[in-house]
Input
Amino acid sequence: MQKLIKTVTLSLALSLAGGCSYVGVYKRDLPQGNLVTQEMVAQLEQGMTREQVKFVMGSPLLEAPFNANQWDYLYRLDEAYGGVEQRRVTLTFANDRLVNITSEGNLSSDIELPSYEGPGPATEGTGPDDGIMSPQPTTPDGPTTTPGV
Output
C-alpha cells in the first residue's frame, strides 16, 4: 500500500512540475487596417475630391455612420514581442471637397513588415499556378484562334 502511495505521489509531483514549465508560444506581428505613411498624407491637398483622395489613400477603413463627411484611416501594428504602434488619419469633407486633415501617431517612421514564409496562406502572386496561362475559350467546333497570331 505504501508503495502505491509513493508511486501516485511521485506521478502527481512530476505531472505538476511538467505542467508548470514554460514552453514558448510562437507569436506573429499583427498588422491591421490601412497602412498610412507620411508620403501619402503629404500628397493630400485641401480642395481634393473624394475620388482623388481615394486614389492617393485608398478606401477608408471607417466612414462615420452619422457623419458621411468624415473618413478615418486607421493602422495598428501589434508587434509579437514588442509594443503596439497606432496611426490614425482623419479626413473631413465639405461639399465633397477635402477641408481638414488630422493625424495621430508617428507617420514618419518606416514600418517594415517581415515576409512570412512557411506554413500559412501564401501572399498573392506566389502560388504554384501563377506561371500557368489560362486556357483559351473553346467553341463546339474547336479552340478559338485570334486573328494575326
